[in-house]
Amino acid sequence: MNESQYPLSSRREFLKTTGRIAAVSVLAEAAIPHVHASGSDLIQVALIGCGGRGSGAAVNALNTRSGPIKLVAMADAYEHRLRNSYESLSKSVEAEMAVPEDRRFIGFDAYKQAMDCLKPGDVAIFATPPAFRWVHYFDNVRFHA
Fold this sequence. Notes:
Helix content: 40-55%
Number of strands: 4
Strand order of the largest sheet: 3-2-1-4
Oligomer: single chain
Number of domains: 1
Structural class: alpha/beta
CATH architecture: 3-Layer(aba) Sandwich
Number of helices: 5
Order of helices and strands: HEHEHEHEH
Strand content: 5-15%
Radius of gyration: 22 Å
């Protein structure tokens, strides 16, 4: 006699419970104010890793319709990748570009400088090879802790 101490609930009870949870989460979403960077609607983006994947991710992010967004910093380990990405992005999403020469960083620690251009609530796109991402993550956690 293996009788469970927890009675099985019916399908009807399951649907009631999940419906309540869904309703509460919708209400919570409406009650919590949306946070934007620097008290404005503008979202600033830093692109870290300017190869083909990074440039494509930047184009996707900058073509969003959810609000004003600007690319404000770029970083890559190699100068030619950053230069090619900047030229390509300037042609396709010029209106969303605000990356002057002094916010284009080159080197293996360039991601730190690019992230320093952002404020809380802004976005960093990490499109570096996976082998480097753990360094970025742990260095950022230690830096901001």
